[in-house]
Amino acid sequence: MAIVIKADCPECGVVRLSAGELTVRVCTDDGTGAYCFRCEACGSAISHDASTDVCDLLVSAGVARVDWRWPAELVDRPGGPQFTNDDLLDFHLQLREDDELIKTLVALDDANHSTG
Ligand SMILES: [Zn+2]
After folding, report:
1. pLDDT in tens, 6-46
2. Residue 98 sits in which domain range?
3. CA 67 to ligand 1 center in whole angstroms
């Protein structure tokens, strides 16, 4: 006998789904979970936060589980002080005073016009 899972669509209310129509997504970094499905009636992609117990129950009922992680870039922050508005202004002034940079940019612009 197939298991019927009831879930809530914000547009349609309670909808009935089979285990194959849902996915459990678990963040392995913080342990938070959610279950996701596409509502057959309105086509909306829906995700609801779910406790570990609910995620485990859905998986035991045959729902596929997908583990995911936050991007490593969120953890590997560059060192040093934060970039400030004063830094931006200093950079702007340095660009205006950097003759070598201006020569390079003009040369690049000339090269682009001569080839393109
Ligand atoms: Zn719906």
Report:
1. 999 999 999 999 999 999 999 999 999 999 999 999 999 99
2. 83-115
3. 25
| Assigned token pair, 31 | 């342990």
Euclidean distance between CA atoms 112 and 99, whole angstroms: 20
Q: How far is the CA of 65 from the centre of ligand 1 (A)?
A: 22
Is this structure's pTM higher than 0.85? no
> What distances in angstroms separate CA 84 from CA 37, 80, 81, 87, 93, one per listed residue?
43, 12, 9, 5, 15
Give Cα separations from 45 to 22, 37, 40, 48, 106 (angstroms): 11, 6, 10, 10, 51
Q: Establish if 91 belongs to a structural domain.
A: yes
One domain for residues 9 and 57: yes
CA 103 to chain CA centroid, nearest Å: 41
In a domain? residue 78: no
Distance from Cα 33 to the centre of ligand 1, integer Å = 21
